[in-house]
Amino acid sequence: MTTDNSTRTKRSQFRKAQILSGEKPTPDRVHGTAGGYTNWYCRCAKCKEAWAASCYDMREKRKQRAIPGHVHGTENGYGNYGCRCRPCTTAWSDATRDRSQRRKARAA
Question: Which has the closest alpha carbon to 42: 50, 31, 52?
Answer without folding.
Answer: 31
